[in-house]
């Protein structure tokens, strides 16, 4: 049954602009800054852990390569963010909040060299991934449709998109209709629903990882269980359970039945309708994973070629039927093409059986990768190593010159003058920006943020009035 005038799914990205009286507040990679004008500033989103409370401070500085800065009694206090996104000379604080409304707002660098909040605050619900297209930051999530319901009362899954226009400071959401319900059910033709990971623009096209999630209640019940593979019946939950991002409902089959496939959805624009679907069976799902967040692993090189990375996260699944047999690797969609070519590289074999959590472009044909410290088949793996992947030579090189007591790696990178920069957090020390030369994979210590416990984002802004 489909009701008329479809609006939003139960987890749609509801946006409520709220006019505020302002007081003087990838991981989309910043554009490469080959030369910095002195009036611009680097901006650091920092966390300060006090004895009784945690505070968040936007701090500005003149260099990534040297010196120390401190957020103590300095910078602009804010509410923090799940992900800080620098885009088109604005800074957006995207906040994920388990399906409940969360606060998103944007900031700019004032002509006095200090950070200030812009005048509008948005309340948007959960997002599992994000990206950008033209003037918009896009947040995306798959959730239940309010109006596409079967005879059992099961709701079909649909795509919810929020468009944050950074120049005009507006926000809109996709509106489902009977003609365009944005359904994600049976997206790949195997009955499973998908979510999207990342949104990488190359030319006018938008490339998104299509991540199979298994069978929803709607999909599992369809046509008396048509989409449940023979021998996989035990994977359908008979009762609700789990918690948080690991929760599930009775009648769901959580996790894909097809772990040895990689799918990319290519859209001609950002309306998220009528995608071209391309597939390769040389790598697995194209997304990094941490709880309910799906990290973008599809990136454009400087020449426009699209490199599709898979960490083979399905190796960590509990049931052998849902574990991939494929190693972490990378394939390619040439610039302007809508199909994979014969490019392939097995990254895992070059890392002694270890995979990666995240990756970003690092200039030219180089990519920076956050590597796990042990194989995904072992418990307790953590992303505390860095490596450079040279797509031209298909070579993975671990970064040297990093401290030995790393506790975590930052979530944003910045490229400048042929180098890539990333925050590194250490035990019993202050978070530090490290500069990495992609050609040598050598890291050099840069600016230190004294008094902070974490650098959750950083980038470069020019002042605005």
Reconstruct the topology from this structure.
Elements: E1 18-19, E2 41-49, E3 54-61, E4 68-69, E5 76-78, E6 83-87, E7 90-94, E8 102-110, E9 115-124, E10 129-133, E11 136-149, E12 155-165, E13 170-173, E14 193-202, E15 205-215, H1 217-221, E16 253-254, E17 262-267, E18 276-280, E19 287-290, E20 293-296, E21 298-300, E22 306-310, E23 329-333, E24 344-346, E25 356-361, E26 366-372, E27 383-390, E28 395-398, E29 406-409, E30 414-416, E31 419-426, E32 432-437, E33 442-449, E34 454-461, E35 463-464
Parallel strand pairs: 4-33, 8-35
Antiparallel strand pairs: 1-9, 2-3, 2-34, 3-5, 6-7, 7-8, 8-9, 10-11, 11-12, 12-13, 14-15, 15-16, 15-17, 17-18, 19-20, 21-22, 22-23, 23-24, 25-26, 26-27, 27-28, 29-31, 30-31, 31-32, 32-33
What separation lies between the terminal Cα atoms?
Answer: 53 Å
Tell the overall outline: globular
Count of helix runs: 1
Report on the biggest sheet. 6 strands, mixed
CATH architecture: 7 Propeller
Provide the β-strand percentage band. Answer: 35-45%
CATH class identity: Mainly Beta
Number of domains: 1
Brief descriptors of the model:
Methylamine Dehydrogenase, Chain H; globular; 6-stranded mixed β-sheet; mainly beta
Q: Can you tell me about this structure?
A:
By secondary structure, this protein is an all-beta fold. It has one domain: Methylamine Dehydrogenase, Chain H, CATH 2.130.10.120. Helix content is 1%, strand content 45%. The chain is built from one helix and 35 strands. Strands 1, 6, 7, 8, 9 and 35 form a six-stranded mixed β-sheet that branches. The chain is globular, with a radius of gyration of 22 Å.
């Amino acid at each position: 049954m489909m009701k008329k005038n479809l609006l939003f799914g139960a987890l749609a990205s509801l946006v409520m602009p709220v006019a505020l009286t302002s007081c003087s507040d990838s991981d989309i990679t910043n554009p490469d800054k080959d030369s910095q004008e002195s009036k611009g500033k680097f901006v650091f989103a920092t966390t300060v852990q006090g004895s009784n409370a945690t505070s968040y401070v936007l701090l500005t500085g003149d260099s990534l390569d040297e010196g120390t800065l401190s957020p103590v009694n300095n910078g602009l206090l804010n509410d923090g963010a799940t992900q800080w996104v620098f885009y088109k000379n604005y800074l957006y604080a995207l906040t994920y909040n388990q399906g409940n409304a969360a606060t998103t707002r944007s900031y700019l660098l004032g002509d006095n060299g200090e950070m200030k909040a812009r005048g509008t605050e948005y309340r948007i619900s959960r997002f599992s991934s994000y990206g950008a297209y033209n003037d918009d930051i896009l947040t995306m999530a798959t959730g239940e449709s309010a109006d596409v319901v079967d005879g059992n009362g099961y709701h079909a899954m649909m795509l919810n998109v929020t468009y944050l226009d950074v120049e005009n400071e507006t926000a809109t959401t996709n509106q489902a209709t009977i003609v365009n319900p944005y359904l994600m059910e049976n997206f790949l033709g195997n009955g499973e629903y998908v979510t999207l990971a990342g949104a990488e623009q190359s030319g006018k096209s938008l490339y998104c990882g299509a991540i199979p999630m298994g069978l929803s209640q709607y999909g599992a019940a369809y046509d008396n269980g048509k989409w449940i593979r023979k021998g996989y019946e035990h994977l359908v939950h008979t009762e609700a359970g789990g918690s948080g991002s690991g929760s599930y409902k009775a009648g769901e089959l959580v996790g894909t039945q097809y772990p040895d496939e990689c799918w990319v959805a290519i859209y001609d624009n950002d309306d998220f309708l009528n995608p071209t679907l391309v597939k390769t069976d040389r790598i697995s799902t194209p997304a990094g994973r941490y709880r309910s967040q799906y990290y973008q692993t599809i990136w454009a090189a400087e020449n426009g070629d699209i490199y599709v990375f898979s960490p083979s996260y399905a190796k960590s699944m509990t049931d052998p039927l849902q574990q991939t047999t494929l190693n972490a690797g990378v394939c390619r969609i040439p610039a302007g093409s809508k199909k994979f070519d014969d490019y392939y590289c097995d990254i895992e074999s070059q890392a002694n059986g270890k995979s990666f959590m995240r990756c970003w472009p690092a200039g030219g044909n180089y990519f920076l990768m956050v590597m796990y410290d042990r194989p995904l088949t072992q418990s307790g793996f953590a992303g505390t190593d860095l490596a450079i992947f040279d797509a031209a030579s298909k070579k993975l090189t671990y970064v040297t010159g990093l401290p030995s007591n790393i506790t975590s790696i930052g979530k944003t990178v910045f490229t400048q003058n042929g180098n890539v920069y990333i925050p590194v957090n250490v035990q019993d020390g202050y978070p530090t920006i490290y500069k990495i030369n992609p050609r040598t994979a050598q890291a050099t210590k840069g600016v230190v943020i004294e008094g902070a416990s974490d650098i959750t984002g950083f980038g470069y802004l020019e002042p605005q009035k």
